[in-house]
Design brief:
Blueprint (H helix, E strand, L loop, with lengths): L2 H26 L4 H25 L27
Helix pairs in contact: 1-2
InterPro entries: CotJB_dom, Spore_coat_assembly_CotJB
Keywords: Capsid protein, Virion
Protein name: Spore coat protein CotJB
């Protein structure tokens, strides 16, 4: 797998991890405006990274787009097949 594709996937994982951590934090600190601003910023980053990846390499989730005939979702590498 090409390096640029791997780098985008790594960025998506990193930002996704931070989003989940902030979700958990905000569950117990709902009035923390700084955390909420950081969360919203990271969600926007996550969406942008995902759109960039999907524009270049195709969908990351099988339900994020309609499929062409024949079913092609299985043609991309599975998560355990990606060499980081």
């Amino acid at each position: 797998m090409e390096e640029s594709r791997i780098n985008i996937l790594k960025s998506l994982q990193e930002v996704g991890f931070a989003v989940i951590e902030l979700e958990l934090y905000l569950d117990t600190h709902p009035d923390d405006m700084n955390a909420l601003a950081a969360y919203n910023n990271l969600v926007t980053q996550q969406q942008n990274i995902m759109m960039n990846y999907e524009r270049m390499y195709g969908p990351l989730r099988n339900n994020s787009t309609q499929s062409c005939y024949p079913w092609q979702w299985i043609n991309d590498p599975w998560p355990w097949e990606i060499k980081y």
